[in-house]
Each structure stands twice: as structure tokens, then as C-alpha cells.
Amino acid sequence: MLNDCRTLVVEDTAEIADLIRLHLEDLGLQVTCAADGIAGLELARSGMFDLIVLDLMLPELNGLEVCRALRADTRHYTPILMLTAKASEIDRVVGLELGADDYLGKPFSIPELQARAKALLRRSEKMRGTVTPDDKSLVRAGNLEIDTLRHEVRLSGKPIALTAKEFDLLLFLAHHPGRVYSRAQLLDAVWGTTLESYEHNVNTHINRLRAKVEADPANPQYVLTIRGVGYRFADT
After folding, report:
1. Residue 123, SS3?
2. For 172-183, how does the pLDDT look when each residue is reduced to its tens digit (9 = 90+)?
3. What is the pLDDT of residues 52-83, one digit of tens each?
4. Are residues 125 and 156 in the same domain?
5. Where is the OmpR/PhoB-type domain (predicted)?
6. Range of the domain at 115
7. Residues 172 and 154: beta-carbon distance below 8 Å
């Protein structure tokens, strides 16, 4: 339920922060605001929020630095909707590669802001709901183990440090072994966007994932490429 969700808005322009707060509260969300990157990061690290709306241009720490720090902390995973007035494509790409879940350029419409927020919250709830302690909490394939309750990955019993997005990508593929997904399908399922210009993020994360979980990334055992189509997780 949205009225049970808490949202952190990190925005240094008071008028914009108030506007965002008012319209997210219209959805029934509980909203807390922070006016700089350091304060926002401290609040976000508490793990008490269900969504973070993060401005790119912030005093103290910018939004990319905050995003990077949050995604390096694997104790909590909170969806991030990044806001920016900068129009450059590279800013959007970098933001997504660092772990932002969605991107909204300023100026934005209120209905679009609300729709993006609701989509991120619902997708996050759905992903949590796909795992039950009795039968899906541990995914095994060969020497690879994915522990969804602990949000941990182990290879031959040794823990592997993955970013939150790498974990989400691996878990999604592993939950559907043998099924081939195009980059566009993975982008939609894991990142929640269908913009073709972001499809290279899938390639980047696949390469990083293989470097961590494959004994020989050039000849992967788990995350396989189907040339001209996409990727699939090996049949178990």
C-alpha cells in the first residue's frame, strides 16, 4: 500500500522540494526532505525509506556521489528516482550505471512524477513479493548460490560482492533459467525503463557480473549470450 511507504526527497531548491513533497503526499506517501547531499545520504543510509527522489545537482555531495555511495552499501536497497535539469545524455547514462532506477528531467509534469514514483514503489514491492522463505529464498546453480533473504551471492561458498543492480539482474535471470531475454526486456524488468538509449547498461552490467561470478568470464557457465537475441541463465 502506498500510504505505508516512506519517501526521501533530496533537493536543495526549497520550492521544488515543497512541490514534490506536496504531490507525493497526495499519493498517500510519507515524505521527508533533505537539502544537501550529505544530509540526504545520512538519512538514506538508515534504510527506513521505500523510495528516494534524488536531485543531481546538490551542495556538499552531488546526486551521482550520493547514488554511488548508496549502491556501494549492500545492507539496504532503496529505489532511486534521479532528477536533473541537465539535458546531456551522458548524465542520464552515468546515473543509471551508478544504480539509479529511473531518471526524470526538469522541468517535469506532476502526473509524470507521480507515475514514476508509483511504478518504482510497485515494482520494488513486486520483487520483494516474488520470494518466500520456504521455497525461493535460495537459488542454486552449480557452485553459485543466491540468497535472496540475506541479499548475498556465494560462489563455492565464498561471498561475492555485487552491487544492488547486479544482484537484481542475476536474480531475475536465475529465476527464469533457460529463458532468453533481449536487452530491452531486461532493461524493462530490472531497470524499469524502455528507452533504447540505455540498453548498453545491460551489456555493462552483464560484463561486470560475469567478471565476479564466472571462473572464466570469456566462457561463462551461468550468464550466457544468445548471439543476436540476448541473454539467458544456464538451465539448472
Report:
1. helix
2. 999 888 999 999
3. 999 999 999 999 999 989 888 767 778 899 99
4. no
5. 136-235
6. 2-129
7. no
